[in-house]
Write a structure and sequence with these properties.
Length: 248
Amino acid sequence: MNESQDGISLAGEAYVRLRDRILRGELPIGKVISRRRLASELGMSLLPVSEAFIRLEFEGLLESRPRAGTRVKIPTEDEVRGHYVVRQALEAEAAWLFAGAATVRQRAELKRLSARVDALSTQTDGDRFVYLSLHEKLHRRIAECAGCQTLCEAIEKNHVLASTWLCVARHSSPGQSSRRHQDLIDIVISGDPAAASEAMRAHINAALRNTLDRLEPYFRLREANGKTYVRSVDARKPAKERKLHRAS
């Protein structure tokens, strides 16, 4: 392998490993990341790590500012709302198509999968990444069984960004049903496209409200800190208790 190919391979490895840590919540939103420190951890030079940073910033998982450094992106409220507008449009269409195209076996599969997702959602001490993976699989299978690969790919890309937001510590939402995914799937598999689409819209709207509630402390943090990044973020603490540091 020549030097150019080796550089591409290392950049790809750095991208995959960093992306995985972000999506697992090991690097939470707002976490400042040092290129030099990460390169040292991965046993690489700065170049492939910097290329990975650029790619992840383009995908919306990282953000950088001059003299402030790079951190796992803290979204604005408008960005979150816009994300869910797109998600609602995509998944409502997937539910409509699924209702008219899915087989009996596929409908039964989703019913079983929704029960597993709801069971995991009530386990406060469970593995959050396992829940998120299964939750994404449920929504992905609706799109896959709808028979439109392009729609499926768009939904999968949309879910990646939201994964970082959902790794934020959760708390019980008033009125949130422990059967919300089973209730959704019962309607989606009923064979009524209009009802399936409307149920999915309501489900996504509830998810938006929950996400905004989770991220509200981070919205305040982003506004309070302006152009300065913090070394270690705990959005639950008052701003006066957090020390500001510049990134390496």
